[in-house]
């Protein structure tokens, strides 16, 4: 009979805020600090809020202006490279206790550890082992943490998210019995890992509001409503999770892709959006070349600006009202905002050859953009993707291709990568990146969407 496993899930409390507190010589559990970039405006999102501010009712991921003016607090600009370095240092602490084969980093501030083999090795209970890891992290980095313990990954995660919050020592522990007693009746159900508002609404239509309710539903109804995802709901409702860390590490996807997304600082016109798209395509193609990959599938998604614009005095106002939207002039003609129109454009398509040539890929991406994006609407977000990636040894050979031109492009791409790798991404940029609404140079300074 296989030994029951013990998993530990460790979360670094308000990680970005804690790093900033420690850097200032402050206690993360006492200092009142938010991580946000005030230069972006008071509506910017706070990436992290210290535990002391949370205790005063300030919610995580709030807008900066939502922090009450009556509270004295520090605003720290995000420093993503610093957070990545501290996260790496903490990972190094874990490695002194366990093998990397038994660690699964879930995010920059959270990880799972299979503690099964180490409890006997260190002659510790699961709670003692979890406490030892947490204390070592706090002693060496100053970062506080909470811990969940369970016999599988799901129960360890739920113990962290729900049980640890109510534990005096910050360590939550669940087994099958405690899961049924404490978690089955827990509401809201969205507190449960991997159950979002959409799933919760669909369950509510059956008058099911907690995991206990799911266990009483007919599996046939769940499969009809959720398809194959019903299997996860049923397993988790019963506290089951067959996947192990070893299986996660052994997993290899049948296909891979590269994605690149850009949130624009304001509504961009069709032409300015195309300029940013060109920069993004150039960067992503360089990633393909650096990784020695080729693609035969392109995808594009464009999100339009959602704000309504006053239309007083603009021709077509009556037609706009009839369609539930408003019209204004944006230099390309009359444009409708709001109403029943789709909030996004774009699509995907298979291309005739596998390639990582910008000269071949960008015209196809541009054609997709021109065919699927509304030129009368302002753009706030652009995502592009290259899919079905394989090693460039499998690139499609074309008897009619200009071999010398392709060789020159490849040498140019490799030279650009060499310069950027040695001197930084902004050491070499195209002329279009110097235009007023270009985003490439600013994006090259960001880590995780924020200044490093």
UniProtKB/TrEMBL annotation:
User: Molecular function terms in GO for this entry?
Assistant: damaged DNA binding; DNA-directed DNA polymerase activity
**Which residues belong to any copy of the UmuC domain?**
7-196
Sorted alphabetically, the Gene Ontology BP terms of this entry are: DNA repair; error-prone translesion synthesis; SOS response
**A GO CC term?**
cytosol
Q: Which InterPro entries match?
A: DNA/RNA_pol_sf (IPR043502), DNA_pol_Y-fam_little_finger (IPR017961), DNA_polymerase-Y (IPR050116), Rev_trsase/Diguanyl_cyclase (IPR043128), UmuC (IPR001126)
Say which domain of life the source belongs to: Bacteria
Q: What does this protein do?
A: Poorly processive, error-prone DNA polymerase involved in untargeted mutagenesis. Copies undamaged DNA at stalled replication forks, which arise in vivo from mismatched or misaligned primer ends. These misaligned primers can be extended by PolIV. Exhibits no 3'-5' exonuclease (proofreading) activity. May be involved in translesional synthesis, in conjunction with the beta clamp from PolIII.
Q: Which family is it part of?
A: Belongs to the DNA polymerase type-Y family.
Q: What is this protein called?
A: DNA repair protein
Q: Which organism is it from?
A: Adlercreutzia mucosicola
């Amino acid at each position: 009979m296989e030994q029951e496993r013990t998993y530990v899930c460790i979360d670094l409390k308000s990680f970005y805020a804690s790093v900033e507190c420690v850097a200032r010589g402050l206690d993360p559990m006492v200092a009142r600090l938010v991580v946000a970039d005030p230069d972006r405006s008071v509506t910017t999102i706070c990436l992290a809020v210290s535990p002391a501010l949370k205790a005063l009712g300030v919610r995580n991921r709030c807008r900066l202006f939502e922090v009450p003016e009556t509270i004295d607090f520090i605003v720290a600009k995000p420093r993503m490279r610093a957070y990545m370095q501290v996260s790496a240092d903490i990972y190094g602490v874990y490695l002194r206790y366990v093998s990397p084969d038994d660690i699964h980093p879930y995010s920059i501030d959270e990880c799972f550890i299979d503690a099964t083999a180490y409890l006997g090795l260190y002659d510790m209970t699961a709670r003692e082992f979890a406490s030892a890891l947490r204390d070592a992290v706090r002693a060496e980095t100053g970062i506080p943490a909470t811990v969940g313990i369970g016999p599988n990954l799901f129960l360890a995660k739920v113990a962290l998210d729900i049980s640890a919050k109510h534990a005096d020592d910050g360590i939550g522990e669940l087994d099958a019995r405690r899961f049924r007693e404490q978690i089955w009746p827990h509401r809201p159900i969205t507190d449960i890992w991997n159950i979002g508002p959409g799933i919760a609404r669909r369950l509510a239509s059956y008058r099911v509001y907690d995991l206990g309710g799911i266990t009483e539903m007919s599996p046939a109804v769940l499969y009809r409503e959720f398809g194959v995802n019903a299997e996860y709901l049923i397993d988790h409702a019963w506290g089951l999770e067959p996947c192990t860390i070893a299986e996660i590490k052994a997993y290899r996807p049948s296909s891979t892709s590269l994605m690149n997304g850009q949130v624009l600082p304001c509504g961009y016109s069709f032409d300015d959006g195309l300029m940013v798209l060109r920069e993004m395509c150039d960067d992503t193609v360089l990633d393909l070349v650096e990784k020695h990959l080729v693609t035969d599938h392109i995808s594009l998604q464009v999100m339009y600006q959602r704000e309504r614009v006053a239309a007083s005095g603009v021709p077509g106002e009556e037609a706009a009202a009839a369609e539930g939207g408003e019209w204004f002039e944006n230099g390309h003609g009359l444009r409708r905002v709001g109403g029943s129109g789709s909030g996004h454009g774009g699509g995907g398509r298979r291309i005739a050859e596998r390639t990582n040539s910008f000269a071949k890929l960008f015209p196809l991406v541009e054609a997709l953009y021109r065919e699927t994006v509304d030129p009368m609407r302002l753009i706030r977000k652009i995502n592009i993707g290259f899919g079905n990636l394989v090693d460039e040894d499998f690139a499609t050979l074309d008897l009619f291709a200009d071999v010398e031109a392709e060789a020159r492009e490849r040498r140019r791409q490799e030279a650009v990568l060499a310069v950027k790798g040695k001197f930084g991404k902004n050491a070499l940029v195209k002329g279009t990146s110097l235009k007023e609404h270009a985003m490439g140079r600013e994006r090259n300074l960001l880590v995780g969407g924020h200044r490093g």
